[in-house]
């Protein structure tokens, strides 16, 4: 519980710092959270996005290679505990699992010096939007029509015409079909950050988690929660493992736009092994009450000129404070 108290303390600080990430007369975290509720409805006690989820616990074993570009203690040789959360994108906590729904993995690394590193990753090769304003506009365009249960095709087409960067990103995403399940998905941070080593040298970095154990084929889909059910069964049989890869950017690589991939020839560093040893029903004391704020960074890691992480911090904090004041409903996914 002391660890959870520490998470909450950071969340409040993040909100205080990030609450004004856009002009007060324009887009704010409050309006952003309202927009999620407008699209998905208000579900007491749940996150406004990635509402359906499952907590996880494990470790990260750093091999020390990441220390060449970053002085953060979490990247020195050694093992630290990790709190995690698997999730599906969207604000419906009881949605049916579908293979093409965005999958998320949030992680909070807890080194002994208390300098946490939090990251919220998804299984997409690039992000769909380059700015908070674009994400906000697309969220409304994707709202299902009450008569059809699907977004208005014309509204979405109009959005794509105004945002060619999103249209280009969607083409890349469609060329990367999802894996069978959570356990064999690759997860990507997508946003660029700045890493600084002990010598003071700074580089741009994006990171990914690549699965060590690939699935033999497509998972069956007999039930509403089949992706989570398979994750629970797999975690009961064996640890779930991913390699943490740090991709180092070069001059000219876009650091401000997560819709644009970096060239595949960029240098990568295998920084260590993430192992998930258990998954749990969301409850007090695990990831249920953790805010995976991407701006919670240890010394040696810093934001770049990408506008999304600071915006996400404000919205995540607003979602956190709202659900903290609400009655907690039982999770759809139970172990």
CATH homology group? Catalase core domain
Instruction: Work out the strand percent.
Output: 15-25%
CA gyration radius, whole angstroms = 19 Å
Largest sheet data: 10 strands, antiparallel
Q: What's the total helix number?
A: 7
Model regions low in confidence, pLDDT < 50 over at least 5 residues: 1-25
Structural class: alpha+beta
Could you explain how this protein is built, in words?
The chain is of the alpha+beta class and about 325 residues long. Helix content is about 25%, strand content about 25%. The chain has a single domain (about 15-325), classed as Catalase core domain (Catalase HpII,  Chain A, domain 1), CATH 2.40.180. A hairpin with a 7-residue loop joins strand 3 (about 105-110) and strand 4 (about 115-120). Helix 1 (about 1-20) crosses helix 7. It is globular, with a radius of gyration of 19 Å. Mean pLDDT is about 90; it is low at about 1-25.
Which helices and strands appear, and what pairs or packs with what?
Elements: H1 2-18, H2 29-40, E1 52-62, E2 78-88, E3 103-109, E4 117-122, H3 132-141, H4 153-162, H5 164-174, E5 187-188, E6 193-196, E7 202-211, H6 226-237, E8 240-248, E9 268-280, E10 301-303, H7 308-324
Antiparallel strand pairs: 1-2, 1-9, 2-3, 3-4, 5-7, 6-7, 6-10, 7-8, 8-9
Helix pairs in contact: 1-7, 2-7
